[in-house]
Design a protein that fits this description.
The complex is a heterodimer of chains A (about 325) and B (about 300). With about 325 residues, chain A is of the alpha+beta class. Chain A has 2 domains: about 230 residues, P-loop containing nucleotide triphosphate hydrolases (Rossmann fold, 3-Layer(aba) Sandwich), CATH 3.40.50; about 100 residues, OB fold (Dihydrolipoamide Acetyltransferase, E2P), CATH 2.40.50. Chain A is built from 9 helices and 18 strands. Chain A is elongated, with a radius of gyration of 24 Å. Chain B has about 300 residues and is an all-alpha fold. In chain B, a hairpin with a 6-residue loop joins β1 and β2. In chain B, α9 crosses α11, α10 crosses α11 and α13 packs antiparallel against α14. The chains are: A alpha+beta (about 325), B mainly alpha (about 300). The interface between A and B is medium-sized, with 25 and 19 residues.
């Protein structure tokens, strides 16, 4: 099958800043593909390159098999859901959704009919006469989605679309977006800095750091087999330890907070370390423990365990951390 | 009173004002409201009132009796109607020209100029306002004069014939630019241009860049984006600017006196009627004309959807 998006060796330089630094990636048709990274990592610039709002300094951009590097945004077969929604304040909800049809010269009746279908799909029937200012954040988000979908794009770009919503609404919208994507069968390219959002929705995730892709994998692989220290820490906040702390040969190792057992007191054994518990955070279903190692207090470890096992675990007490050697992941050398 | 005691009283005062935000707001707004209500609107209403009085032809005294005679006199005299038509046409031409010149400048200032370039443009737009209005108007009389720099410039380019052709246009032309309606038009446009640039620039400044990108993303070519997104959102600024240039031109009595062809403008008529002629009711009736015209213009702009973006 033809790829929806192909970036080959794409760079985007602003002055002296390499916002995107020699990136290559392929998004398969029909895939939910996420660009994950902290702010300033180049993920949004990458999306804007695909949309056509930025021009690459070098490299090639191919959309649906057609070279697009020199195409302006209005000539590309992609549509975007903007982070601030970018709804037209002087138009009604209906005219906002029908905008893409209006600029193509489709008659009023036909474009209103199709816009109403889209509003039905995003559950905003009855709101069509309102102005964007009269809607809540979640409703505006749906209008932005309907507006971007009205032209039946084969690729939809989403730039942190849920960033401005509160947690409960965000979780609802994650489920809706995912089922919408399955139902429509179009390619989603999704920018987010929220690792749980990327992991729960995506088929594949590209983790961005400093304008480069650190790792491109399925959510499961990313979580289970992080390749670099950055990915290990950013996705799932893993503990990263030097091999010598563990009595292993050089290099760095990652271990997930929930793969470590924590017990009160000093217990000797292999695959274990003794530490001092400095903080206990009760999180509801789980409890998070912050521990510094006894032989090197600069190293901090985080342990997450099911709630209910706190007996004998008090801040300041000595604890033993144990793990299964199979849970350690050796990391590729590289900057964090 | 000891400092501690006065401090305590002030404390109490600010506490009670904080707890009564409406009272605090009222106290803050009272002086400007009095200024606006009594001095500003009050004198305007008084003026309107006078337009419904008339003057006694024999004594030259104002008759404090409600009548429409003054308006009837204004509207039944062809000479007066000429003055109104002349002024309104000039104001329309000046407003349109200012809009056409100001929009690209405001657009550049809002979307492209950054940092020092932006400061430079602000300065360039505002700098003329720092010097005396009278000095600038008289300077223009010299610039536009028969031996002035403009006709010199045209002659240097061997384009003297072009200037003569412009001056040969009936009504608009005249013996020289400084004594033609065309010259007056140039001075009006120069003087009022900043009042058009700044509101448009302020309106465009408030348009998020993402709206323009969204429009392009949805398939609109730049011309379509301009027509369907940028222009409607800039419209409140354009209307605000055009009210400035329109009403300033309608009311001005200095430029028509210094530059341009003979023939009164509304502002001059108001000046003459309430000064030399002592006919305050007729002067008041003349000054009602711009108010009515601008009221009609605003109603029209509202119907045309110019304020949809507000």
């Amino acid at each position: 099958m033809q790829n929806a998006v192909e970036l080959k060796n794409v760079s985007c330089v602003f002055g002296t800043v390499h916002a995107v630094d020699h990136i290559s990636l392929e998004v398969l048709a029909g895939e939910f593909f996420s660009l994950l990274g902290p702010s300033g990592s180049g993920k949004t610039t990458c999306l804007r390159l695909i949309a056509g709002f930025e021009r690459p300094s070098s490299g090639s951009i191919v959309l649906l098999g057609k070279d697009a590097a020199s195409l302006p945004p209005y000539a590309r077969e992609v549509n975007t859901v903007f982070q601030d929604y970018a709804l037209f304040p002087h138009m009604s909800v209906l005219d906002n959704v029908a905008y893409a049809l209006m600029v193509r010269g489709i008659g009023r009746l036909e474009r209103h009919r199709r816009a109403l279908e889209l509003l039905e799909m995003v559950k905003l029937r009855g709101m069509e006469k309102r102005r964007p200012a009269e809607l809540s954040g979640g409703q505006r988000q749906r209008v932005a989605l309907a507006r971007a979908l009205v032209n039946k794009p084969r690729i939809l770009l989403l730039d942190e679309p849920l960033g401005a919503l509160d947690l409960k609404l965000r979780e609802e919208m994650q489920i809706e977006l995912k089922s919408l994507q399955r139902q429509l069968g179009i390619t989603f390219v999704y920018v987010t800095h929220d690792q749980s959002e990327a992991l729960s929705m995506s088929d594949r995730v590209a983790v961005f750091n400093r304008g480069r892709i650190e790792q491109l994998d399925s959510p499961k692989k990313l979580y289970e087999y992080p390749e670099t220290e950055f990915v290990a820490r950013f996705v799932g906040s893993a503990n990263v330890l030097a091999g010598k702390e563990l009595g292993l040969d050089g290099g760095k190792f990652a271990i997930r907070p929930e793969r470590i057992r924590i017990e009160p007191g000093r217990i000797s054994g292999t695959n274990s370390l003794v530490g001092r518990l400095i903080d206990v955070h009760f999180l509801g279903s789980q409890t998070r423990y912050e521990v510094t190692l006894v032989n090197n207090s600069t190293i901090r470890m985080t342990v997450v365990a099911p709630a209910g096992g706190e007996a004998g675990l008090e801040a300041g007490s000595e604890v033993t951390l144990t793990w299964n050697p199979g849970s350690l992941r050796k990391l590729r050398e590289g900057e964090a | 009173m000891s400092p501690a005691a006065s401090k305590a009283i002030l404390r109490k005062l600010s506490d009670s004002l904080f707890l009564r935000p409406r009272l605090a707001l009222l106290l803050l707004l009272l002086p400007p409201l009095l200024w606006l209500g009594v001095i500003y609107l009050g004198s305007l209403l008084n003026l309107l009132l006078y337009s419904f009085y008339s003057i006694d032809d024999f004594t030259g005294q104002v008759k404090y009796q409600f009548t429409l005679d003054t308006f009837r006199a204004l509207l039944s005299s062809p000479a007066n109607l000429d003055i109104v038509a002349r002024t309104v046409l000039m104001a329309v031409a000046v407003t349109v020209a200012c809009g056409v010149i100001a929009f690209p400048m405001a657009y550049f200032m809002a979307f492209y100029a950054r940092g020092n370039t932006k400061a430079f443009w602000y300065l360039a737009v505002l700098l003329p306002l720092w010097s005396s209005y009278l000095v600038r108007v008289y300077a223009w009389r010299l610039i536009l004069a028969q031996e002035g720099i403009i006709s010199w410039f045209f002659n240097q380019l061997h384009l003297g014939w072009l200037l003569n052709a412009i001056l040969a246009v009936p009504v608009l032309g005249g013996p020289s630019l400084s004594s033609s309606y065309f010259g007056m038009f140039l001075v009006f446009v120069y003087i009022w241009l900043p009042y058009m640039i700044l509101p448009i620039q302020a309106a465009l400044e408030r348009v998020p860049k993402s709206l323009i990108q969204a429009s392009a993303d949805l398939g609109a070519r730049p011309a379509q984006t301009f027509r369907t997104v940028i222009l409607p959102l800039a419209m409140p600024g354009v209307v605000a600017g055009s009210i400035f240039t329109f009403s300033l031109t309608l009311g001005d009595y200095i430029i028509p006196g210094v530059v341009g062809a003979p023939g009164y403008f509304i502002g001059q008529m108001v000046y003459v009627q309430q000064g030399n002629a002592g006919n305050i009711p007729l002067a008041a009736a003349f000054s009602v004309v711009p108010i009515v015209i601008i009221g009609l213009y605003l109603a029209f702009a509202r119907r045309a959807g110019a304020f949809d973006a507000l």
